[in-house]
Model the fold of this input.
Amino acid sequence: MTNARRSIGGRLRAAALLGALGSTVGGAAWAQADADLGRCLAALQPAAQAAGVSAATWREHTAGLQADPVVVARLDDQPEFRLPIWDYLAVLVDDERVDDGRARLGEHRETLAAVARRFGVDAETVVAVWGVESDYGREFGRFPLVRSLATLSCQGRRQAFFRGELFATLRIVQGGHVEPDLLVGSWAGAFGHTQFMPTTYERLAVDFDGDGRRDLVTTVPDALASTANFLQKAGWRTGEPWGFEVRLPAGVDLRGEGRRTKRPLSEWTARGLRRVDGAPLASGGLAPTTPAGLLAPAGRDGPVFLVLRNFDALYSYNAAESYGLAIAHLSDRLRGRGPFSTPWPTDDPGLSRAQRRELQTLLIARGHDIGEVDGRLGERSRAAIRAEQARLGQEPTGRGGQKILQALR
Ligand code: CA
Done:
């Protein structure tokens, strides 16, 4: 989703406070919040006009807006910084997403080949971004962009950042590129197949089908080309891998190492690292001078990777290493490679979406009211998991993993 999720530390949650007020004094608190939003937006109008949003556009799309407390709560609750890495990857790179991605590679073969020729980014990488960002167009998010971004422009932290995104959204609407009704997205304002933020859209979206509109919502070729354009501008090196899993000999010190601490492959070779398939690090066309950083997302006992310049390009899409690794791994799976060689250091691995749906079905069968079976372990699913864990004598964490699934089968 490009930049919006950049880490933001925990602090008092404005929306949690609003929620508490709402539960005690009812509608009055909400009315107050909406009045505050109205005043804040009125004060922003001159800045919007200076940023190219006409007074008429501003009035039409912001008049009477109600604040959305949910989006402010999300500002402090970002899954890639909260979930264990093995849960995050189990969902984002499961067999369903691999199978769907292979189907998309076939359906869009010609477009993807043309995109690769123009931007130098291979089909598997572009499709992996698409699969992680929106599940290949199935999940655009449900938050109306103008309402979310107006709320975040006036509440919570990073208001200046979100004001820039709000103004960009209204410029996109004003320019007629995307129908206003279709501008729904993530809580933070990322929208369309590839979940671009509005200012990213303005900088990097591409009209690849040549109809005169840059449309990331209803035109797959525009979306795929825009992703490739993003990665190219982020420094993508055509033909180079993102990196690879390695075997780490005992005695290699991890302190101070990371994505940013790049050393030539020859130096890693001298320290005794090898690819997990036994091949030399500098093979497959890579020179011994190629700079690589050591990534050990779960420490030395889990999978360890050497990451190259293209991993940084993936990272820049969303500023989270777990996210970059999800795309990188999905792209390898789409190339026909298998799961990581080294298991994650846990006795309770994460669940795929199919397994999450199975777990939810089992919870319902045991009488828990968790709503629909949707593969998302939300509040009610987690409460039911906690209850079942307590009943079974497991630690009641509310986390859905292999242990509770197998216990309920
Ligand atoms: Ca177009």
